[in-house]
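ok trying this again, last paste got cut off
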Amino acid sequence: MIRVEHLEKKFGNLTVLKDINVEIKKGEVISIIGPSGTGKSTFLRCLNLLETPTGGKIFIDETDILDKKTDVPKMRQKMGMVFQSFNLFNHLSVLDNLTIGPVKLLGKEKTEAEKRGMELLKMVGLAEKAESFADELSGGQKQRVAIARCLSMDPEIILFDEPTSALDPTMVSEVLAVIRRLAREGMTLAIVTHEMDFAKDVSNRVFYMDEGLIYEDGSPEQIFENPKKEKTRAFINRIRSFNYHIDSPDYDLYKMNAEIEQFCEKHVFPLKMVNDILLIIEELLVLYQSQSKTINVDLRVAYSEKQDSVEIIFESAGEEGNLLEKAEPDDIGVMIIKNKAERIEFQYVDDRNKLSMFLKRK
């Protein structure tokens, strides 16, 4: 239904979208998630040409909408869009907001458009507001009217650009309920959202966007339960990290410890956990220096807000070798680390040793 090839969008020297290639099939419900400023909304706006792509191609039902011969207004009618800011006409009644497009653009009779408009208002639970004006509605009601107005144009695809971001928390559920209904009825939907539970529940496919790319594309189960890529995992698990590089045997231990303590304090770690983290890192460095002639270490303390756990990651280049296994079995440092960590994992990837220790925040 939608095929995107090598899509690129620049604003001056800033590249917002980079070489995006993706296909959306009829009936798919796709949630687009990711950090702010990674091109999610720009991607949607390029799909319906509210933003003109800098490069690439976009096909709707095999028609290249960037071809100069394409009737763009006609193609746009296939693709409705719901904005975070509602974009209703405040000087018109709710019903008139729904009928103006079908009458002026689709050539429908006013009575036919009004009949369809009332059906749609009933569907979104707002038939009693038909004669009200838009500025008399709550935020949640305005967004439901915006969805009904979009449906009044009989689109084949609906793009939702953060449809709940401008709403109070109490109003979010009423809008999400309408979108869920559309998904159940088989409408093709692409939804930029920060509502992770909703995305997991309603979608059959999820795009994680980062740095202007669709960084990972998969089922909700894959993206939310077993993401393949590190940035996706960090976003889904709401991971905050402290990173420190050591490349000299004369590194400043006190400075490093002070920065780790500052990171722990920011995330309100219990004092015992802070002490355990510092002790594990100190013992790891002692072990490493006893086994290596040089020092080149990347250290990371990663806190997962979602799992309420901490991972200490100790990476070093060189031949494969687990610090803990290379040490003597009765080494006091090894015993301390194994006693403090709930779980320990070792990997050798891209010529780097990666030792991970997991602690639950208590």
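PB: full thing came through this time. The chain has a mean pLDDT of 92.
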